Amino acid sequence: MTVLLRKMGSLVWWVSSFALMMQVAPLCEAQTLRTAPAKAGPGEGRDAIVDQIVQPFLQDGCHVGLSVVIVRRREAWFYNFGSTSRTTRTKPTTDSVYEIASVTKTFTGALAAKALLRDHMQLDADFRQYLPEQYPNLQWQGRPITLRNLATHTSGLPRDLPDTDDLYAHRDPETLPYKLIARESGYDRARYLDELHKVALRNQPGTRENYSNLGFKVIGWGLEQVYGMSFERLLQEQILQPLRMNSTGFVLSSNERSRLVNGYSPAGRLMPEHLRNAGAAYGLYSTPRDMARYVEWQLDEANPEIMLAHEPTKGDSQSVKALIWNLGTLDGSRMLWHGGGTFGMSSQVVLFPSYNEGYVLLANDTCNGTESALKNLAIVLHGRLRSSVRPPPGDFRP
Description:
Layout (H helix, E strand, L loop, with lengths): L7 H13 L25 H14 L5 E8 L2 E8 L15 E2 L4 H14 L21 E2 L2 E2 L2 H5 L13 H5 L6 H9 L4 H7 L17 H15 L3 H10 L13 H5 L20 H4 L2 E2 L1 H11 L5 H7 L3 E2 L4 E2 L4 E5 L2 E9 L4 E7 L4 E7 L6 H16 L13
Antiparallel strand pairs: 1-2, 1-12, 3-6, 4-5, 7-8, 8-9, 9-10, 10-11, 11-12
């Protein structure tokens, strides 16, 4: 599959395309990004295009391995590069296991969309009614938190529970993971719910965007309450089992652990995995094969649950958000994306619903800018491939 770059022109093209696409226009802005038309040249196949675009990313010695999934018209193509470990030459596979980090939040959002459609929740209702205990503290001058606030990071909740702002204020990517683990180790559902009583909102809900993992754990606890089952069981029954995502979950089997890639810091140090209590915020593991099925499902906007999850729920001059997803436009067409990063891995899912096309990019490093670079790889790939002739059959139908 791998085709070596044959000339420096490929690198020049990639750099110029990358610079052109570094910004995606929010839906609410009058002007949207325009990309230069780029069709595949004579004899230039899909594999060669993918290889040309990905190779410059891999030439940065900080990166270790990369899995790319392209889903288009109910078919999927898989590309794997680099290595699962700095100590071996083993290439990732379609069934390699990665931490998908905050891409987990899109699963939480999908479950919330299902709850909305079934009238188990309301987008702008007082979310405290869905929690298992009374939380008079989760309001600001009489204005309570809502699902809309929680899903768009505008609830006023801190980033984490326990508070980690002091650690992020002096972050060192080589030591921060161990400090975060030490601080949050020992927290289970009961302890979280107990200490949630002591949390004070930092601003009026709906007025300011501040990233909050805690907000998504709160959504998870609310879903548990209205459905009467654990979040993990709910996710299995509502999404993972129906989509046959058999290697996706919060806990790895021995077989899945044997397929887990190693994650690395910017300095190339082997990093620990996320804690078990990451849950609805960033706790999932998955594989390229499973994520292809997930993307196919997310592209089906005839499904009312998906359509609801993709509708704008917040918009201003800076950003537009759906129920979890970031929204923008590219050449006049909608683009949705969500990324993630754990202590040693980075992920990105990018959707182009108008083209029935989506991308999954999984990397086993947390180098500076990896998460945004993965998004821009998807944008460049989309630009090169969307005008090409009808491709051959994919590696499999999700």
